[in-house]
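Quiz preparation item.
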């Protein structure tokens, strides 16, 4: 309302003239409702100058810079604040803003600095590896993720999937086998993941490969999974088993088996 706007303008005047804490508190209370991001930024920068902010408060400052259409100014401000305080929380928020501003190289450098400060963890490694993956630096992304494989849990969403993908691309078969196996056991493996695991297991663990190929057929209706199972039965000249497998294939799908290369 006009009255609230007038109150905000008055508090801004007092804050600039006297640096009154009551005035700044009023600005922080009034500005969000009026969507006055300039006033909100002014007040939050004052808060940052007088006390230590927490992660959510630094994120709020980054968000305000984005709302104003000035992400580069926000990046400069957060970078200056980090250099002055050496607070890893600021560096984390800075990296996020750099990512959102599509400054991926800067974000990757910030995340590497953050890992050096706080020590690596699966979530942080995942963020950095994803940036490296998107710019096709597969080897570096793999180097970031691989040492943390034993520490990753189901809470680290996407970690195992990305590690498996990188290992597959780089032909790191042992790591790929372990990572795809973990996805399968955890119930998050997709059709392509199971197919790749089957290919990795087939030379040395044919029985497990055949079991997973059948699982792929039964879970995903994967024609390639059924074909692998049939091929392996044929290699063993187990024609009875081949017949049993073909009984699982509906008539409408048999033409697909015949035409799949």
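Solution:
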């Amino acid at each position: 309302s006009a009255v609230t706007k007038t109150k905000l303008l008055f508090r801004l005047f007092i804050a600039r003239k006297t640096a009154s804490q009551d005035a700044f508190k009023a600005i922080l209370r009034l500005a969000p409702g009026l969507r006055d991001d300039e006033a909100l930024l002014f007040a939050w920068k004052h808060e940052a100058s007088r006390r230590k902010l927490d992660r959510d408060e630094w994120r709020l400052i980054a968000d305000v810079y984005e709302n104003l259409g000035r992400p580069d100014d926000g990046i400069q401000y957060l970078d200056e604040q980090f250099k002055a305080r050496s607070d890893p929380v600021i560096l984390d928020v800075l990296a996020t803003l750099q990512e959102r501003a599509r400054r991926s190289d800067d974000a990757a450098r910030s995340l590497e600095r953050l890992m050096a400060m706080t020590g690596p963890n699966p979530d942080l490694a995942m963020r950095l590896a994803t940036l490296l993956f998107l710019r096709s630096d597969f080897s570096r992304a793999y180097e970031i993720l691989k040492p943390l494989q034993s520490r990753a849990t189901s809470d680290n969403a996407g970690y195992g999937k990305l590690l498996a993908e990188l290992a597959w691309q780089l032909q790191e078969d042992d790591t790929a086998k372990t990572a795809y196996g973990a996805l399968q056991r955890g119930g998050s493996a997709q059709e392509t993941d199971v197919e790749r695991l089957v290919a990795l297991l087939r030379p040395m663990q044919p029985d497990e490969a055949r079991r997973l190929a059948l699982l792929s057929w039964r879970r995903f209706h994967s024609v390639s999974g059924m074909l692998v199972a049939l091929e392996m039965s044929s290699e063993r000249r187990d024609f009875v088993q081949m017949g049993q497998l073909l009984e699982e294939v509906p008539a409408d799908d048999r033409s697909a088996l015949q035409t799949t290369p």
